[in-house]
Automatic annotation (TrEMBL):
EC number: 1.5.1.2
MF-aspect GO terms: pyrroline-5-carboxylate reductase activity
Key words, A-Z: Amino-acid biosynthesis, Cytoplasm, NADP, Oxidoreductase, Proline biosynthesis
Organism, scientific name: Candidatus Ruthia endofausta
Functional pathway: Amino-acid biosynthesis; L-proline biosynthesis; L-proline from L-glutamate 5-semialdehyde: step 1/1
GO terms, biological process: L-proline biosynthetic process
Catalytic activity of the protein: L-proline + NAD(+) = (S)-1-pyrroline-5-carboxylate + NADH + 2 H(+); L-proline + NADP(+) = (S)-1-pyrroline-5-carboxylate + NADPH + 2 H(+)
Gene Ontology cellular component list: cytoplasm
Localization per Swiss-Prot or TrEMBL: Cytoplasm
Domain Pyrroline-5-carboxylate reductase dimerisation: 163-266
Amino-acid positions noted as binding NADP(+) in the UniProt annotation, renumbered to this chain: I9, G10, A11, G12, N13, M14, T37, A70, V71, K72, P73
Domain Pyrroline-5-carboxylate reductase catalytic N-terminal: 6-99
Protein's job: Catalyzes the reduction of 1-pyrroline-5-carboxylate (PCA) to L-proline.
Name of the protein described by the UniProt record: Pyrroline-5-carboxylate reductase
Protein backbone atom coordinates (compact mmCIF):
# COMPACT_ATOMS: atom_id res chain seq x y z
CA UNK A 1 0.00 0.00 0.00
CA UNK A 2 2.96 2.27 0.72
CA UNK A 3 3.47 3.59 -2.80
CA UNK A 4 -0.11 3.23 -3.99
CA UNK A 5 -2.30 6.10 -5.07
CA UNK A 6 -5.90 5.06 -4.59
CA UNK A 7 -8.65 6.92 -6.42
CA UNK A 8 -12.33 6.57 -5.52
CA UNK A 9 -14.91 7.28 -8.21
CA UNK A 10 -18.10 7.97 -6.25
CA UNK A 11 -17.82 9.65 -2.86
CA UNK A 12 -20.96 8.12 -1.28
CA UNK A 13 -21.54 5.83 1.70
CA UNK A 14 -19.24 2.97 0.71
CA UNK A 15 -16.38 5.22 -0.38
CA UNK A 16 -16.71 7.06 2.94
CA UNK A 17 -16.58 3.81 4.93
CA UNK A 18 -13.55 2.44 3.03
CA UNK A 19 -11.64 5.75 3.13
CA UNK A 20 -12.15 6.10 6.89
CA UNK A 21 -11.04 2.46 7.32
CA UNK A 22 -7.91 3.09 5.22
CA UNK A 23 -7.00 6.26 7.12
CA UNK A 24 -7.55 4.51 10.48
CA UNK A 25 -5.22 1.76 9.26
CA UNK A 26 -2.43 4.24 8.49
CA UNK A 27 -2.92 5.08 4.78
CA UNK A 28 -1.78 8.68 4.26
CA UNK A 29 -4.25 11.39 3.16
CA UNK A 30 -2.15 12.19 0.09
CA UNK A 31 -2.41 8.55 -1.11
CA UNK A 32 -6.20 8.83 -1.51
CA UNK A 33 -8.06 10.89 -4.10
CA UNK A 34 -11.77 11.11 -4.72
CA UNK A 35 -14.05 12.07 -7.57
CA UNK A 36 -17.81 12.63 -7.72
CA UNK A 37 -20.38 14.63 -9.68
CA UNK A 38 -21.74 16.03 -6.41
CA UNK A 39 -19.53 19.00 -5.44
CA UNK A 40 -21.19 19.52 -2.05
CA UNK A 41 -20.41 15.92 -1.11
CA UNK A 42 -16.81 16.30 -2.31
CA UNK A 43 -16.40 19.39 -0.08
CA UNK A 44 -17.66 17.36 2.89
CA UNK A 45 -15.15 14.58 2.20
CA UNK A 46 -12.32 17.11 1.75
CA UNK A 47 -13.23 18.76 5.07
CA UNK A 48 -13.31 15.39 6.86
CA UNK A 49 -10.28 13.66 5.34
CA UNK A 50 -8.19 16.43 3.69
CA UNK A 51 -8.13 14.58 0.34
CA UNK A 52 -7.57 15.85 -3.17
CA UNK A 53 -10.96 16.04 -4.90
CA UNK A 54 -11.98 15.91 -8.57
CA UNK A 55 -15.16 16.43 -10.55
CA UNK A 56 -13.53 14.91 -13.64
CA UNK A 57 -13.06 11.13 -13.30
CA UNK A 58 -10.43 11.01 -16.06
CA UNK A 59 -8.19 13.51 -14.22
CA UNK A 60 -8.40 11.41 -11.05
CA UNK A 61 -7.74 8.22 -13.02
CA UNK A 62 -4.63 9.68 -14.65
CA UNK A 63 -3.01 10.09 -11.20
CA UNK A 64 -3.84 6.74 -9.56
CA UNK A 65 -2.60 3.17 -9.83
CA UNK A 66 -5.71 1.78 -8.11
CA UNK A 67 -9.24 2.95 -8.90
CA UNK A 68 -12.17 1.94 -6.73
CA UNK A 69 -15.44 2.14 -8.64
CA UNK A 70 -17.90 3.13 -5.91
CA UNK A 71 -20.84 4.37 -7.98
CA UNK A 72 -24.26 2.74 -8.29
CA UNK A 73 -24.35 -0.25 -10.69
CA UNK A 74 -26.70 1.59 -13.09
CA UNK A 75 -24.13 4.33 -13.84
CA UNK A 76 -21.07 2.06 -13.96
CA UNK A 77 -21.12 1.52 -17.73
CA UNK A 78 -21.15 5.26 -18.48
CA UNK A 79 -18.39 5.89 -15.89
CA UNK A 80 -16.21 3.15 -17.45
CA UNK A 81 -16.85 4.20 -21.03
CA UNK A 82 -15.52 7.69 -20.23
CA UNK A 83 -12.33 6.06 -18.87
CA UNK A 84 -11.97 3.83 -21.95
CA UNK A 85 -8.39 3.73 -23.27
CA UNK A 86 -7.35 6.39 -20.72
CA UNK A 87 -5.93 3.91 -18.18
CA UNK A 88 -2.57 2.23 -18.26
CA UNK A 89 -2.65 -1.59 -18.29
CA UNK A 90 -0.98 -1.46 -14.83
CA UNK A 91 -3.97 0.30 -13.26
CA UNK A 92 -5.92 -1.96 -10.91
CA UNK A 93 -9.69 -1.49 -11.01
CA UNK A 94 -11.68 -2.55 -7.96
CA UNK A 95 -15.43 -2.59 -8.48
CA UNK A 96 -17.74 -2.79 -5.48
CA UNK A 97 -20.85 -2.36 -7.66
CA UNK A 98 -23.34 -5.12 -7.00
CA UNK A 99 -24.00 -7.47 -9.91
CA UNK A 100 -21.84 -6.00 -12.68
CA UNK A 101 -19.60 -8.71 -14.23
CA UNK A 102 -15.85 -8.19 -14.63
CA UNK A 103 -16.03 -9.04 -18.35
CA UNK A 104 -18.52 -6.17 -18.87
CA UNK A 105 -16.37 -3.72 -16.89
CA UNK A 106 -13.35 -4.82 -18.92
CA UNK A 107 -15.26 -4.43 -22.19
CA UNK A 108 -16.46 -0.92 -21.23
CA UNK A 109 -12.88 0.05 -20.32
CA UNK A 110 -11.56 -1.16 -23.67
CA UNK A 111 -10.11 -4.56 -22.66
CA UNK A 112 -6.94 -5.94 -21.06
CA UNK A 113 -7.49 -4.42 -17.62
CA UNK A 114 -6.77 -5.87 -14.18
CA UNK A 115 -10.13 -6.02 -12.39
CA UNK A 116 -11.08 -7.18 -8.91
CA UNK A 117 -14.77 -7.44 -8.12
CA UNK A 118 -15.91 -7.23 -4.52
CA UNK A 119 -19.34 -7.90 -3.06
CA UNK A 120 -19.30 -6.27 0.37
CA UNK A 121 -22.40 -6.09 2.57
CA UNK A 122 -23.94 -3.17 4.46
CA UNK A 123 -22.24 -3.86 7.84
CA UNK A 124 -19.08 -2.68 6.02
CA UNK A 125 -20.40 0.79 6.90
CA UNK A 126 -19.60 -0.15 10.55
CA UNK A 127 -16.38 -1.97 9.56
CA UNK A 128 -18.15 -5.27 10.28
CA UNK A 129 -18.69 -6.38 6.71
CA UNK A 130 -17.72 -9.47 4.82
CA UNK A 131 -16.98 -9.58 1.13
CA UNK A 132 -16.33 -12.06 -1.62
CA UNK A 133 -13.52 -11.09 -4.00
CA UNK A 134 -12.85 -12.23 -7.53
CA UNK A 135 -9.80 -11.31 -9.63
CA UNK A 136 -9.70 -11.58 -13.43
CA UNK A 137 -6.67 -13.06 -15.22
CA UNK A 138 -4.83 -9.76 -15.58
CA UNK A 139 -4.59 -9.21 -11.81
CA UNK A 140 -1.09 -9.88 -10.43
CA UNK A 141 -0.53 -11.42 -6.99
CA UNK A 142 0.74 -8.03 -5.77
CA UNK A 143 -2.48 -6.37 -6.99
CA UNK A 144 -4.53 -9.11 -5.28
CA UNK A 145 -2.95 -8.33 -1.92
CA UNK A 146 -3.40 -4.61 -2.56
CA UNK A 147 -7.14 -5.12 -3.22
CA UNK A 148 -7.43 -7.32 -0.14
CA UNK A 149 -5.68 -4.71 2.03
CA UNK A 150 -8.07 -2.00 0.82
CA UNK A 151 -11.23 -4.07 1.42
CA UNK A 152 -9.90 -5.43 4.70
CA UNK A 153 -10.22 -1.97 6.20
CA UNK A 154 -14.01 -2.51 6.39
CA UNK A 155 -14.61 -6.21 5.67
CA UNK A 156 -13.37 -9.70 6.13
CA UNK A 157 -12.28 -10.91 2.67
CA UNK A 158 -12.89 -14.31 1.03
CA UNK A 159 -11.55 -14.99 -2.49
CA UNK A 160 -13.37 -17.08 -5.09
CA UNK A 161 -11.85 -18.44 -8.31
CA UNK A 162 -15.17 -18.68 -10.11
CA UNK A 163 -16.89 -15.30 -10.59
CA UNK A 164 -20.36 -16.87 -10.63
CA UNK A 165 -19.84 -17.74 -6.94
CA UNK A 166 -20.13 -14.00 -6.24
CA UNK A 167 -23.86 -14.47 -6.96
CA UNK A 168 -23.98 -17.13 -4.22
CA UNK A 169 -22.12 -14.77 -1.88
CA UNK A 170 -24.60 -12.02 -2.79
CA UNK A 171 -27.43 -14.40 -1.88
CA UNK A 172 -25.93 -15.39 1.48
CA UNK A 173 -24.08 -12.34 2.86
CA UNK A 174 -24.81 -9.48 0.42
CA UNK A 175 -28.58 -9.66 0.97
CA UNK A 176 -28.12 -11.50 4.29
CA UNK A 177 -28.40 -8.53 6.67
CA UNK A 178 -32.03 -8.06 5.54
CA UNK A 179 -32.86 -11.70 6.42
CA UNK A 180 -31.71 -11.05 9.97
CA UNK A 181 -33.66 -7.77 10.08
CA UNK A 182 -36.77 -9.75 9.06
CA UNK A 183 -36.08 -12.25 11.84
CA UNK A 184 -35.72 -9.35 14.30
CA UNK A 185 -39.01 -7.83 13.11
CA UNK A 186 -40.79 -11.17 13.51
CA UNK A 187 -39.33 -11.84 16.98
CA UNK A 188 -40.29 -8.32 18.08
CA UNK A 189 -43.89 -8.77 16.89
CA UNK A 190 -44.12 -12.20 18.52
CA UNK A 191 -42.76 -10.84 21.83
CA UNK A 192 -45.21 -7.92 21.71
CA UNK A 193 -48.07 -10.38 21.06
CA UNK A 194 -47.12 -12.08 24.35
CA UNK A 195 -47.55 -8.77 26.22
CA UNK A 196 -44.04 -7.27 26.09
CA UNK A 197 -43.69 -3.58 25.35
CA UNK A 198 -42.67 -3.41 21.65
CA UNK A 199 -39.46 -1.47 22.30
CA UNK A 200 -38.48 -3.96 24.99
CA UNK A 201 -39.23 -6.89 22.65
CA UNK A 202 -37.08 -5.25 19.96
CA UNK A 203 -34.19 -4.67 22.35
CA UNK A 204 -34.37 -8.26 23.60
CA UNK A 205 -34.34 -9.54 20.00
CA UNK A 206 -31.45 -7.33 18.81
CA UNK A 207 -29.22 -8.03 21.80
CA UNK A 208 -29.95 -11.76 21.49
CA UNK A 209 -28.94 -11.72 17.81
CA UNK A 210 -25.76 -9.81 18.64
CA UNK A 211 -24.86 -12.17 21.48
CA UNK A 212 -25.63 -15.28 19.43
CA UNK A 213 -23.54 -14.00 16.50
CA UNK A 214 -20.64 -13.22 18.79
CA UNK A 215 -20.89 -16.70 20.33
CA UNK A 216 -21.00 -18.34 16.89
CA UNK A 217 -18.04 -16.32 15.61
CA UNK A 218 -15.84 -16.87 18.69
CA UNK A 219 -16.68 -20.52 19.40
CA UNK A 220 -15.00 -23.56 17.90
CA UNK A 221 -18.40 -25.28 17.88
CA UNK A 222 -20.53 -25.17 14.73
CA UNK A 223 -23.88 -23.33 14.91
CA UNK A 224 -25.57 -26.74 15.06
CA UNK A 225 -23.45 -27.81 18.06
CA UNK A 226 -24.16 -24.49 19.79
CA UNK A 227 -27.88 -24.99 19.17
CA UNK A 228 -27.79 -28.52 20.55
CA UNK A 229 -25.98 -27.27 23.67
CA UNK A 230 -28.74 -24.77 24.48
CA UNK A 231 -31.64 -27.09 23.60
CA UNK A 232 -32.55 -29.09 26.70
CA UNK A 233 -34.77 -32.11 26.28
CA UNK A 234 -38.44 -31.15 26.68
CA UNK A 235 -37.44 -27.54 27.39
CA UNK A 236 -38.68 -24.25 25.95
CA UNK A 237 -36.02 -24.03 23.21
CA UNK A 238 -36.84 -27.54 22.01
CA UNK A 239 -40.51 -26.57 21.77
CA UNK A 240 -39.61 -23.58 19.58
CA UNK A 241 -37.12 -25.49 17.39
CA UNK A 242 -39.63 -28.28 16.76
CA UNK A 243 -42.20 -25.70 15.77
CA UNK A 244 -39.69 -24.13 13.30
CA UNK A 245 -38.92 -27.58 11.88
CA UNK A 246 -42.62 -28.48 11.55
CA UNK A 247 -42.97 -25.34 9.39
CA UNK A 248 -40.00 -26.39 7.19
CA UNK A 249 -37.70 -23.57 8.35
CA UNK A 250 -34.69 -24.95 6.44
CA UNK A 251 -36.66 -25.23 3.20
CA UNK A 252 -37.98 -21.66 3.59
CA UNK A 253 -34.41 -20.34 3.99
CA UNK A 254 -33.07 -22.45 1.10
CA UNK A 255 -35.83 -21.14 -1.24
CA UNK A 256 -35.20 -17.52 -0.24
CA UNK A 257 -31.44 -17.80 -0.80
CA UNK A 258 -31.99 -19.52 -4.16
CA UNK A 259 -34.38 -16.68 -5.18
CA UNK A 260 -31.68 -14.09 -4.31
CA UNK A 261 -29.07 -16.11 -6.26
CA UNK A 262 -31.30 -16.33 -9.37
CA UNK A 263 -32.04 -12.59 -9.19
CA UNK A 264 -28.32 -11.72 -8.82
CA UNK A 265 -27.64 -13.71 -11.96
CA UNK A 266 -30.47 -11.97 -13.85
CA UNK A 267 -29.29 -8.50 -12.71
CA UNK A 268 -25.75 -9.28 -13.91
CA UNK A 269 -27.15 -10.17 -17.35
CA UNK A 270 -29.40 -7.07 -17.44
CA UNK A 271 -26.57 -4.67 -16.47
CA UNK A 272 -24.23 -6.14 -19.07
CA UNK A 273 -26.84 -6.07 -21.81
CA UNK A 274 -26.03 -2.57 -23.08
CA UNK A 275 -25.34 -3.15 -26.76
N1 LIG B 1 -24.03 0.85 0.72
C1 LIG B 1 -23.71 -0.44 0.91
O1 LIG B 1 -23.82 -0.98 1.99
C2 LIG B 1 -23.17 -1.29 -0.22
C3 LIG B 1 -22.88 -2.62 0.02
C4 LIG B 1 -22.34 -3.40 -1.01
C5 LIG B 1 -22.07 -2.83 -2.25
N2 LIG B 1 -22.39 -1.54 -2.46
C6 LIG B 1 -22.12 -0.98 -3.78
O2 LIG B 1 -21.28 0.15 -3.62
C7 LIG B 1 -21.56 1.09 -4.65
C8 LIG B 1 -21.70 2.45 -4.01
O3 LIG B 1 -22.80 2.41 -3.10
P1 LIG B 1 -23.07 3.64 -2.12
O4 LIG B 1 -24.10 3.17 -1.16
O5 LIG B 1 -21.79 4.20 -1.63
O6 LIG B 1 -23.74 4.67 -3.18
P2 LIG B 1 -23.95 6.24 -3.03
O7 LIG B 1 -23.91 6.63 -1.59
O8 LIG B 1 -25.13 6.59 -3.87
O9 LIG B 1 -22.62 6.85 -3.71
C9 LIG B 1 -22.40 6.88 -5.09
C10 LIG B 1 -21.89 8.28 -5.43
O10 LIG B 1 -21.49 8.28 -6.81
C11 LIG B 1 -21.90 9.52 -7.36
N3 LIG B 1 -21.91 9.48 -8.82
C12 LIG B 1 -22.97 9.26 -9.67
N4 LIG B 1 -22.54 9.32 -10.95
C13 LIG B 1 -21.21 9.58 -10.92
C14 LIG B 1 -20.22 9.75 -11.92
N5 LIG B 1 -20.51 9.67 -13.23
N6 LIG B 1 -18.95 10.00 -11.54
C15 LIG B 1 -18.62 10.08 -10.22
N7 LIG B 1 -19.53 9.93 -9.22
C16 LIG B 1 -20.80 9.68 -9.57
C17 LIG B 1 -23.25 9.73 -6.75
O11 LIG B 1 -23.70 11.06 -6.91
P3 LIG B 1 -25.32 11.29 -7.00
O12 LIG B 1 -25.88 10.79 -5.71
O13 LIG B 1 -25.41 12.77 -7.17
O14 LIG B 1 -25.79 10.50 -8.17
C18 LIG B 1 -22.95 9.37 -5.29
O15 LIG B 1 -22.41 10.48 -4.59
C19 LIG B 1 -22.82 0.62 -5.37
O16 LIG B 1 -22.47 0.09 -6.63
C20 LIG B 1 -23.38 -0.49 -4.49
O17 LIG B 1 -23.93 -1.53 -5.28
C21 LIG B 1 -22.93 -0.74 -1.49
Amino acid sequence: MQNSLIGFIGAGNMAHAIISGLINNGTKHNQIKISDTNEALLSLRKAEFNLEIFTDNTKLAAQCNVIVLAVKPQVLSSVCKVLKKKLTTNTLIISIAAGVRSRDIERWLGGNQAIVRAMPNTPALLKQGITGLFANEQVSSKQKSLAENILNSVCECLWVDDESLLDAITAVSGSGPAYFFLMLESMTKAGAALGLDERMAQKLSIQTALGASMMASSSEDSPQQLRNKVTSKNGTTQAAIESFQDQNFEVIIAHAIRAAFDRANEIGIELGNDE
